[in-house]
Amino acid sequence: MPIYEYKCRRCNLEFELIRPLSQADDKASCPQCGNECSRMLSTFASFSKGSDGVPVSTGGMSSCTGCTATSCSTCKS
Question: Which of 17, 37, 54, 61 could form a disulfide with 45 if both were Cys (CB 3.0 to 4.6 A apart)?
């Protein structure tokens, strides 16, 4: 089952729920204050190795510590 992320607009608590796909768009109650919460947009990262065996990052994660790009002229790795 997928994990969905929520944020309460009242108390700013961020929390996760494991739910079936059939409940993906259902509202959730905040475990702290009981307010009705909507689902947040979730991101993920995946990693693989290039043909030379060096790790390559994809999905929004950067190998560069100076920016959020996955490759640019200033990246050293």
Answer: 61
